């Protein structure tokens, strides 16, 4: 006899991509049935299971799903419809406008993907899999990471034991239970996880990565659980960041070099996801590279408000316009394949230094203005890239955790009441000086949010930051909705139908 064991999966019925599925038979849409010949779960090969769990991190490098929920819903990115390009039945526009509902494809995909990852890690961590101490530590870190993302987005986590069959509805961890679970996993992982300093070309969790995720979790504790920041938690954040620094990590000079595939002093955790969509989803069709002669996809762009956060001449981002390093530049001399770094605003040039045109022959001048989320031409919107095609159009090196993020978490924790021998303003100006930005005479929490935007744009943290600083439900360019419940995404309709233990988040 065979017994069915459930694991989560990202499988979707094409009939349910956009519309409701009320007339269809309810199935386990976030599950894939695996049948055991023995009738019971008997463990997995731990080495292969751990390698598969690291491979799952590649999904965070996609432009849809988790990245779309984290960035396109923020003030940092939008995907304007250009003619019929990037219309996609409104899937991008609803994210920017905060009008998504429980049937949104990326809400469902992200839920399924993260739950799937967690269940497979439960299998690895089962005593029946006989993982060694190091494998267990890495597995607990990876489970905690996936659970952190799920808690951040949805506020609750379904949890299925490895030996539970199709007739068992997974129990649901509320925010407090999920938070405690994450902290426990990370605390237990720390002693046995490898000590790996900066410059590693190995995709592997480390003590520094555990300290990073512990700091991130504690910094957001009052958001997950309610209340106000606790001074003891903020002191713990500072201690975890200091521990990362003690491992040898420090701020890197040469901002855009961090995003090359080589070694640097900032990258704490990375995955071998292709960075191509971070390059090409915003560049124009007429901006090619030797290993991508087809050019860009002419979609993603930023808002004028976000661009204005950066120091420099707001009307030009060509070299020598006094911009800070992180804002980047648009080359006029054909260098860097003619493609700029950072924020691409104004006239664009080719690899020979000649002015580019769009497909209709108009000067390819990226504007700040949009007529709206629809009705855009090929030139509307400032484009954004950090990974650059001169380093490879589809290089497999995508950064997940970076020391500058931890450094900014430390500054924030000090301002939120944590105890430190260092001064927040001094640290803040240290970072700005490294990034060729002017030092300031004071620093407040609102300054830290802006600095996190300047430092970490398109790295997947903007939604999380805006929620913590209370600006996520504000208005910005082409976004008027201020509904407070949008700080959490809805539990997907299919998940609710398949597991009665789940409860829909308020407002949906």
Comma- or semicolon-separated keywords:
508 residues, alpha+beta, three-stranded antiparallel sheet, two-stranded antiparallel sheet, 11 strands, 9% strand, disordered N terminus
Write the layout of secondary structure elements.
Layout: E1 3-7, E2 32-36, H1 46-56, H2 65-72, H3 93-97, H4 105-125, H5 133-154, E3 157-159, E4 171-173, H6 175-189, H7 207-219, H8 221-225, H9 231-246, E5 267-274, H10 276-280, H11 304-307, E6 328-329, E7 341-344, E8 346-347, E9 365-366, E10 383-385, E11 396-402, H12 403-415, H13 424-434, H14 445-456, H15 462-469, H16 493-498
Antiparallel strand pairs: 1-2, 3-4, 5-11, 6-7, 7-10, 8-9
Helix pairs in contact: 1-4, 1-5, 2-4, 4-5, 5-6, 5-7, 6-7, 7-9, 7-12, 9-12, 12-13, 12-14, 14-15
Your description of this structure?
The protein contains 16 helices and eleven strands. It has 508 residues and is α+β, with helices and mostly antiparallel strands. The longest helix has 22 residues. The radius of gyration is 23 Å and the shape is globular. The N terminus is likely disordered.
């Amino acid at each position: 006899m065979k017994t069915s064991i459930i694991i989560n999966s990202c499988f979707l019925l094409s009939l349910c991509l956009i519309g409701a599925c009320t007339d269809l038979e309810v199935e386990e849409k976030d599950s894939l049935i695996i049948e055991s010949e023995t009738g019971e779960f008997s463990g997995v090969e731990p080495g292969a299971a751990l390698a598969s769990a690291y491979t799952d991190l590649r999904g965070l490098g996609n432009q849809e799903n988790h990245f779309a929920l984290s960035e396109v819903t923020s003030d940092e990115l939008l995907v304007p419809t250009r003619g019929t390009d990037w219309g996609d039945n409104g899937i991008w526009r609803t994210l920017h406008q905060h009008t998504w509902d429980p049937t949104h494809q990326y809400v469902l995909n992200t839920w399924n993907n993260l739950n799937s990852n967690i269940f497979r890690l439960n299998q690895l961590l089962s005593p029946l899999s006989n993982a060694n101490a190091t494998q267990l530590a890495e597995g607990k870190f990876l489970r905690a990471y996936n659970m952190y993302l799920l808690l951040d987005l949805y506020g609750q986590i379904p949890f299925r034991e490895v030996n539970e069959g199709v007739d068992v509805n997974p129990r649901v961890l509320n925010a407090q239970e999920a938070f405690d679970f994450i902290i426990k996993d990370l605390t237990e992982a720390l002693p046995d996880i490898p000590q790996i300093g900066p410059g590693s070309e190995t995709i592997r969790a480390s003590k520094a990565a555990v300290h990073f995720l512990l700091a991130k979790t504690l910094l957001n504790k009052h958001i997950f659980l309610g209340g106000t920041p606790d001074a003891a938690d903020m002191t713990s954040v500072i201690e975890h960041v200091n521990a990362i620094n003690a491992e040898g990590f420090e701020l890197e000079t040469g901002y855009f070099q961090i995003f090359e595939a080589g070694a640097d002093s900032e990258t704490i955790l990375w995955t071998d996801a292709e960075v191509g969509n971070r390059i090409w989803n915003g560049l124009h069709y007429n901006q090619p590279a030797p290993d991508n002669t087809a050019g860009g996809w002419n979609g993603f762009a930023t808002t004028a408000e976000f661009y204005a956060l950066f120091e420099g001449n707001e009307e030009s981002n060509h070299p020598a316009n006094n911009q800070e390093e992180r804002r980047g530049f648009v080359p006029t001399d054909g260098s860097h394949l003619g493609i700029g770094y950072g924020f691409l605003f104004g006239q664009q040039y080719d690899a020979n230094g000649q002015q580019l045109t769009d497909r209709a022959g108009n000067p390819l001048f990226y504007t700040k203005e949009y007529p709206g989320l629809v009705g855009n031409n090929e030139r509307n919107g400032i484009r954004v890239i950090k990974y650059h095609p001169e380093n490879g159009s589809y290089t497999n090196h995508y950064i997940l955790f970076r020391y500058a993020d931890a450094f900014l978490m430390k500054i924030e924790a000090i301002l939120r009441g944590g105890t430190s021998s260092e001064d927040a303003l001094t640290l803040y100006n240290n970072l700005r000086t490294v990034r060729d930005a002017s030092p300031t005479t004071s620093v407040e929490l609102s300054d830290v949010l802006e600095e996190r935007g300047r430092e970490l744009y398109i790295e997947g943290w903007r939604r999380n930051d805006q929620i913590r600083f209370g600006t996520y439900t504000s208005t910005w360019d082409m976004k008027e909705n201020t509904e407070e419940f949008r700080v959490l995404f809805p539990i997907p309709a299919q998940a609710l139908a398949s597991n009665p233990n789940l409860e829909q988040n308020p407002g949906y």
